Structures are given as C-alpha cells and as structure tokens.
Amino acid sequence: MWKIVSCSNFRFVSVLPFSSRVTALCEEKCEPGTTFMEDCNKCRCGPDGQKACTRKMCPPNELSDDSQVRLDTNGQVCSPNEIKMKDCNRCRCANNGIGWFCTRRACPQRAKRSEPAPEKKCTPGTTFRSDDGCNTCFCTETGHAACTLKACLPPGFF
Known about the structure:
The chain is mostly beta strands. The chain folds into two domains: 94 residues, no CATH class; 51 residues, no CATH class. It contains no helices and eleven strands. The strands form four sheets. The chain has a three-stranded antiparallel sheet with strand order 3-4-5, with no helix packed on it. Strands 6-7-8 form a three-stranded antiparallel sheet, with no helix packed on it. It has a three-stranded antiparallel sheet with strand order 9-10-11, with no helix packed on it. The two termini are 33 Å apart. 8% of the residues are buried. The N terminus is likely disordered. It comes from Anopheles gambiae (African malaria mosquito). Keywords: Disulfide bond, Protease inhibitor, Secreted, Serine protease inhibitor. One of its GO terms (cellular component) is extracellular region. It is found in: Secreted.
C-alpha cells in the first residue's frame, strides 16, 4: 500500500478545513529503513532515501493516534493484521506492521442519553418513551423509571 510518487507529481492539496500532503517534498531525503510521522500520516523511508507516506486527509494541527511511533528493530508500529476500532471506523495493521489502515466513515455524533429527572415519578408497571424519543422506559414497583441506554442518532440523520 505504500506508494512512492516522483517529484514531478508533488502537490500540496488544501481542502478547507483540511489539508493533506500527497507526497514528500523532493529535496527532503530520509534515513533508509526509518519510519516517522508527517502530519497525521505514517511514512517509511525506502532504501534509496525516498519516503513513502499514507495519504490521509489531516485536520489542521491533528496529532496522530500514535504520536510517539515505536521504532522496533524491524520498524513495526503495530502487530501485523491486528484490528482495532477508532470511533466508528475499523482499523487494521498492515501485514508488515508498519502502520494502520482505517476505513474513513464520517462517524455520527452520539446524542446524549437522557433519563427522566430523579424527582419524576411514574405509574408502576407502565412503559413509555424517554425524553430523547429513542429509548424505552419501564416504571418499577417503586415508581422509578428504568430506561434503555441506546445511543440515539440526531433527528434527521438519515
């Protein structure tokens, strides 16, 4: 998945509010075999001193989720084929362990879960919708609501 792009193809792309480096600056050389971060992208230096980097769109001033890249003797930063979740995206470690590759879904913001105010009493044995409109509540024998705690999508999300 690493791709070294020639200097003639270099561009700096600016898409508001994000910016992304598409390739390395041509005059920059690196130490062969090293791995490092550039913005939120992981880079690896090839045997010829040319760097190859992932090409994620990076929000301004975003630090990577692994801002202190571990440089093991083989340059691995994660266990090959390891899987983790980051928000609603699934990430998988590359076969050679040199970086994470993640899906790029826009994750919906989770609506806050709401519960009836403690002073509210309800009729024992009844069920009703909670104030957020997406959770269900059951009224206990003591007149207190016990509600589901599902994450609710904002109105009009779909």
